[in-house]
Design a protein that fits this description.
By secondary structure, this protein is α+β, with helices and mostly antiparallel strands. The protein is built from four helices and three strands. The protein has a three-stranded antiparallel sheet with strand order 1-3-2. It is globular and about 35 Å long.
């Protein structure tokens, strides 16, 4: 993992994104701009159950800060961070 992480100012100011979702974005950034950590692993890092991680992922995705490619093999999703807010998912 990286030693330090830059977080977009626009994300910090985004009032529609909860602080825990912003922290998840930072954790994902530590894995790199494209990564596939498990929801259980992310939950352990956040101190939250995997179900809460799913909600935070959806919040970032719907807000345009994260793109998720759902995969069945391997079973882990692929997460791509957006450093600029993209058009929200419809």
């Amino acid at each position: 993992m990286a030693g330090s992480v830059w977080i977009p100012r626009e994300l910090l100011k985004d009032r529609e994104v909860h602080a825990s979702a912003k922290l998840l974005w930072v954790i994902l950034a530590e894995f790199g701009s494209e990564s596939s950590p498990s929801q259980a692993e992310l939950g352990a890092m956040l101190g939250l159950p995997a179900a809460n991680v799913v909600r935070l992922i959806k919040e970032l995705e719907n807000g345009g800060w994260l793109k998720v490619r759902r995969r069945s093999r391997p079973k882990r999703n692929l997460y791509r961070l957006n450093s600029k807010k993209m058009k929200p998912k419809q």
